[in-house]
Structures
1.
Amino acid sequence: MANRRNFLKGAAAGAAALVAKTPLAKAQQQQAQNRGAALPSATALAAETGPVATSVEAMTADHPGSDFMVDILKALGFEYIAANPGSSFRSLHESIINYGGNKAPELITCCHEESSVHMSDGYAKVEGKPMAVMAHSTVGCQHASMAIYNAFAGRVPVFVILGNTIDANARRPGVEWLHSAQDATAMVREFTKWDDLPISLTHFAESSIRAYKIAMTPPMAPVVIVADSELQEAPIADRAKLRIPKLTLASPPAGESGAVAEVAKLLVAAENPVILADRAVRSEAGMKLLVELAETLQAPVLSGKFPSRHPLSIAGGRGLIRNADVILGMEVPDFWGTVNNVRDQQEKSVQPLTKRGAKLISISANDLFIKSNYQDFERYTEVDIALAADPETTLPSLIEACKRLITPDRKRALEDRGKKLAAAHEQALEQARTAATYAWDATPISTARMAAELWEVIRDKDWALAGGAGASRLWNIDKHYRTISGAGAAGVGYSAPASVGAALAHRKHGRLVVSIQNDGDLMYAPGVLWTAAHHRIPLMSVMHNNRAYHQEVMHVQRMANRHQRGITNAGIGTTITDPNIDYATVARGLGIHGEGPITDPKDLGPALRRGIEIVQRGEPVLIDVVTQPR
Amino acid sequence: MRFVILVMMASVLSAQTPSGNAQNGKKLFESIGCWQCHGHEGQGGAGARIAPRPIAFAAFQKYVRQPADQMPPYTAKVVSDQDLADIYAFLQSIPQPPAAKSVPILNR
């Protein structure tokens, strides 16, 4: 490792001469004269400004190693790098803003490392590629760890750089020891896809390119690279000798042709097939492919990434699963839980939802990569065909295989099924409209009313819902980027920063971005609202303020019922009242427009319209809506 | 004849549905946590819609005591039959919502 400490010998020079010569001394002299105050003694000035008599390190460098690290970040095409500032990556920080011109990547100031990583998660879900994150190896990584786990379980590519000082001899006393670890990435290794501790700049370049490639190969996941502080701060010996390897992303794995043919055979012959496509789609092209498969088979699809107003889009779907003879699950994180019914009652019970003889097919890249400690892989699912493959990459060959098998007679039968499904789709929409009318004028405001009022103000725009509670069944979700999925590991505190990260990604596309923001989630790290204000990230956060960690209210209620006692006490420890949080004031304090609390549904539409005007000016805004629980 | 049948049906129904105090039912609905899943007006949410027009009292009572799906059971030890009757009266008192077609923003 390069040594940044080049000791100067015989550095002590005449203090008196220095007093007269240094710009600081001159300035102080002039300042003192201006004030008419007595000049400090030559000794005092020397103590402040002169070199000490002992060995001193030359700490200046025209181009530190961190400049080269910035070259790497630029080569990887990072638009942004999120960080809460930290001394262990101070040189990289400085190189980004000065050497790199604070452009590509631009430094995004975060108030918490969890926000940095969750922002990166939200960004990746929109942009399809990671943004970078910097954090301390110890305290920063500890803050970031839950968000890294969310990204891991959600199969989201995140690129984390941890500042660290591996050489004990190089550490400053005190804090730098506290912020160093001998194996900095150990803490998150169980839930990252790859990590490394490069010990030279060449090593850093190679590992960074490798890490990016690994993160972007399905199943995508976070990667971590340690940027040693010595490596960052030492001068580059010879830039000409350093090179950045070419990045070539791996072609995602497609399903083996024989297995694809078997799947197609089952699907085409099925009387009642169902397609589950949770994380199968990650791009607009993927969404179109999913539509093509569904239309080819005239099969219903349960997926948040399938056009919601397509006749084959089906919400809920338990009835369909019960009736299905073939179920195709593509990147379904909990396939077992989807095809079984678990009752968490006085007595727990498990019943298959599927009928006897139903065939289950899985296409998932998760079969290619699994770790043992964290149990995000869910319960083992007994399937009939399993393709260890990326669904989006497999879809073209599967569609072609299905088309080849469809005879004119079969096509007519499929079309008849499609007509029935289209009628069921229309009926479900009507039912959803009717369901939305219940508690229409209630206070607190119903979630259906809130969703309908929000849809009314965004439906004519190029909108995106950047997280929080899901979009209403009544919204027209017609593009891949309209929605993003929730926290991969259900770690609360995700939605607020992920929606800011997603909004950051949407900004250059000029989209109108809104989020339905849960109150408990926001309170984990509300400082991200300041980040949105500081970086002028347009986002309208509409609070789903039910004044509780509501899921936990229900869990405690369940326990009280099960134990047959204290059923009126479920609010203790689960509600966010007394005092009620005034989110509009919180927002204003963090520098963004805030309005509310809104309790009368009649006030909601006008408030949302005012909010949209602000967002369209390029600023963030928060509307606090006091809502029904769900 | 038709009038006689209607009167008989009404008397059977009233015999099956104990009289309840809607005001107290509303308080109970909040305090024992029904609203958590069913919403403050029984409109549904995490749980099913249960108002207006709740199911018949006998079925309602049976379901509360021995739910078929994910709802936690409320035994007689924690909620009396009279409490259930009051809650039922509250659910019956909730007015009908507007028709979906009459709400323009639900039809975009």
2.
Amino acid sequence: MYLSQYKRETQEITFPLYVRNIKEVQLEPRQLNDDEVSFILRNRRPLSMGSDYFSPDDLRRSLGIRNAEGDVKSYLGVPLISGDQVLGVLAVRDTKRTRAFGVNSQGILTTIAAQLAAAIQNAYLFDRINAFNQELSLLNRNLEEAVAERTEELSEERDRINTLYRITSELARTLDLERVLRRALEMVAHAVNAADGVIMQINPTTDKLHTRAALAFDPHTNESDEVFIHPATALAAALIQEQGTERTILVDDLRSNEHWDASLPGAEAYQSALAVLLEINDDILGVMILLSEEQEVFTQAHVRLAVAAANQVAAAINNSDLYYLIRDQAERLGMLVLAEQEEAQKGNAILEGIADGVMLADANNEIVRFNSAAERILDLPRDRVIGQPLSRLVGLQGRWLMAINQWAQSAEADPQEGFLSDQIEIGSKVVNVRLSPVRTDSQFLGTVLVFRDVTKEFEADRLKSEFISNVSHELRTPMTSIKGYADLLVLGAAGQLSEQQKDFVDKIKANADRLGILVDDLLNISKLDSGNERMLLDNISVGRVLQTVINNLQGRAEHEHKHLNVTLTVEPNLPEIEADPGKITQVFTNIVDNAFNYTYADGSIEINARREDSDHILVSVKDTGIGIPDEFKDRIWERFGRYEEHALVMDVAGTGLGLPIVKTLVEMHKGQVWFESEQGKGTTFFVLLPIEQGKRE
Amino acid sequence: MAHILVAEDERDIRELINFTLMYAGHTVTQAANGEEAYEKAMALEKKPDLIMMDVRMPKMTGYEACRRMKGEADLKDIPVVFLSAKGQDEEIQTGIEAGAIAYILKPFAPEELNRRLAEILQQIGTA
């Protein structure tokens, strides 16, 4: 008998139990085919062969069974069926007899087969459940591992983010970099279980590493004056030299590392290290190093954390550097602005403090500055003036604008251009105005106008002139008596005088004359100063004027018993000139008197009048006198300018007002006067006078 | 020689003029101010040949006296000469306008004064 088992998935038939002649035989498994077992498995019904009616062979033929177990005389096989599945075949066989198995046998076998099928199915199920169970527990274990791993990763990530967050907030909170770096370092060291940490920065000017923050070695509390060098400096330098290839160095055992010198102070305690570059925008700022007292402490997770923290630290250093840079710049800028403001304020204060009115116009003749004195003097509020064109200013003269235009157009500062001076009247005020160009190099920037209220000076001047005039008149009265009575005495009107009496009276008379000249000159000057002197123009012959002057001089020469050769040469056909006869007479009287006064007896005076050009005549008065010393030549036109030494030598009565009067009178005639002189040889005065005066203003 | 009426408030100068004119041979009638000069000129039976006046005088200025005299038929033809320390053009102008024929400045030299007077008297035909 045998028991075959069938696996549907593989269509394989195995024989777990085969007994022949009470001996167990091993039978090879086979595939489903046309044999008896396969027939039963396919048709799921028992097969019985060896009956009385059909031989087994006949039956096989009719059922299509081949490869038969040909040796059998009787065969009975039943399928092992469980539910809808056929699990195998239970068969008995007999090789000696036919009709060995009856209906009963089939019944028993079928019953056994049913039991067997159930048992096999149970066993199957059990196996399946077992296997499933095993698979499940395996799966479970894998899942647990995965969860645990992920949890660890997450917590590590969380720690890392936490640490980073704290570092970042700490870094962002303050710009006190030293404190911040130390705090960040503490947090990173704590997060990666490091005993010590150090942040080193490259000094961009020296290219050297210096310690910015360190936990075990605080560079700031280092008492020695020596420059502090952290034992990890060599390691940091090594990392920087590898830039581009490595951003981190992880050293599990420092004792075998070439960049670690354990003999350095404080170095022997450390066994492992983690170094990270501090870089921002491809710029290496420095290195952060974490040190542990145990070997192999730092993991890849620590490396990731350190790199992330390093980025934040680098950003903080960069921010701080930028902050200080910006702060320095802002400070410098602020100082500059402040200085400029101060300067401007000073300038303003000076401008406001000036007693004179100052008005400034830009290159477009627009008024840009107007100080308070100008407000007061011109009686104009500032806000009505600022921004206005200069031409709108009340009282502005056309010639001011002409001068300004000329300044604006000349490319270079003309040293001759100087300034323009004018006097204007505003109500009862007399205001002196000075206009000057404002230039830097060749650029015309505008015009500055300075106003000075000269009302008081003007009034004082008028009073002075009036005073001099009054005093002169008052002086003339007693002088008339002195001079007159002296004259009468000299004339002998009061009886004959002795020589000595006559000499004394002459001296009284001479001094009275001198006083008379002084009073006359003072009166003349004050008249000229007052500006009230009018020109009474007439056509005059200069030749005749000169002859009159010479005649008067002759009288004086005779009187003083001083003989001089006086010659007058007048060019024939010399035209008459348009002039004030009294003033021209005074001009030549003063000049010729001077020639007489400063020339020794028997000297000569040559007077020459000729036509100089189509519009002018020139008169020269040349003497052979003592001349004008060089040091006095500049002061000759000044009032009361008398070279006393010569005046004393020549015993000249004078006031020092003669030549200033000459100059003023000649200029009133639009003429010029000048002189040439050599000491000891003589002096020549020249007077150039226009033939016509033209239109007067 | 001529008869000259002299008006001058300063006594010393009046006497100086008086002496100078008399020294030259003239007859002199003296007055101390413009008013007195006018009154004396009016009162004189025989009118003077020339009137010489200072300008600035109390009571009546020389100009005013001159203007008054020129308004009198008996006096208007007598030449008037001013003798003044005020030498400004305007002063001279005013004097001429008042009717004077000459304006002599102080201080003067006696000889010069007599010379000028001789010229003026010659001009008016009284020499």
